[in-house]
Structures are given as structure tokens and as C-alpha cells.
Amino acid sequence: MGNVAQMRRRRGANAIEFALCMPIFVLIAAATIDFGWLFYHRAVIDAAVGDGCRVGALVDPMLGYPTTVAEAAIVLAMQANGLSCEAVDCQPEAAIVGTMPYMAVHCAITITYDPLFGLLAGNQIMQAEMQRRLEWQRESTLPPPQP
Questions:
Q1: For the chain, what is the domain count?
Q2: In a domain? residue 139
Q3: What is the largest CA-CA distance in the chain?
Q4: pLDDT tens digits for range 21-54
């Protein structure tokens, strides 16, 4: 009989403890999700720039312009990973740098990151860059390097 009376007295304390601890757990869960969203964006733009730069470096300049192909491949890689350029306001850029025989395509992207909850990281500008050596280097077909 003593246990039943003790449990009745404890019932209200459990509700109060739950009410005090629940906001902290929700805050921790929301912060974890927000950081995951931030790292997801970072991983997607890094992978997209890598893919776009790789595709641009493999293009034969007689068949297509490497920078145009690289920029299009960056946008496609982002879409394949679930981010559209309309949603994150992305600006892919590619340029040919260096001189023969070390010419390379330099790829970059800048996006506006919008957090889910905004608890720990607010709106940010994220950037990723990569440079890959051009596989096809023909002096007569490549444009002059850009500064």
C-alpha cells in the first residue's frame, strides 16, 4: 500500500520534470538537424564543383567550350543531389587558367544558404572552388588564359 501512495505523490513531479527538460531536448534536436542541413549543403556544392570541373576538363575544345560545359555540369550535379539553383541562388563560374602545357579549368560556385531553423547558423554565402588540368590541350583551339 505504501508504494501506491508514493506513486501518486510522484505523478505530478514527473510531469514537471518533463516540462522542464523537453525544451532543452527539442533545442538540441533542432540544432543537430540545422547543422546536418548546413553540412549537407556544403557536401553538395563541393561534389557539384568537383563533378563539373572534371567534366569540363575532359571536353575536347573542338567539340565544346570547357568552361560552358563545366558550368552546365555544376548545375546538373547540384540538381542530381537535390539542390536547384533557383532555390539556393547559385552562381557557377568557370575559367581557363594557366599556359600550355599546364592549362586548367578553374571552377567555382557561390550559393546563398538558408538554414531550416536558424538556431546556430544564419543566412550565409557558401563558396566552393576546384581546379583541374585540361586533358585536351591544343594551342590552336584554346582561348587565351583569363586572369
A1: 1
A2: no
A3: 97
A4: 999 999 999 989 988 988 999 999 999 999 999 9
pTM above 0.90, yes or no: no
Kindly state the DSSP code that residue 84 receives in the 8-state scheme.
Answer: -
Q: 58 lies in which domain range?
A: 2-133
Q: What pLDDT digit, counting tens, does each position of 63-76 carry? A: 778 899 999 999 99
The three-class DSSP label of residue 96 is strand
Identify the CA nearest to 135 among candidates 49, 63, 47.
Answer: 63
48 within a domain of the structure (yes/no): yes
**18-22, 78-82, 137-141, 143-147: least confidently modelled range:** 143-147
Q: Is 69 exposed, middle or buried (0-12, 13-18, 19+ CB in 10 A)?
A: buried
DSSP 8-state symbol, 1: -
In a domain, 64, yes or no: yes
Where on the phi/psi map is residue 89: left (φ > 0), alpha (ψ -120 to 50), or beta? Answer: left
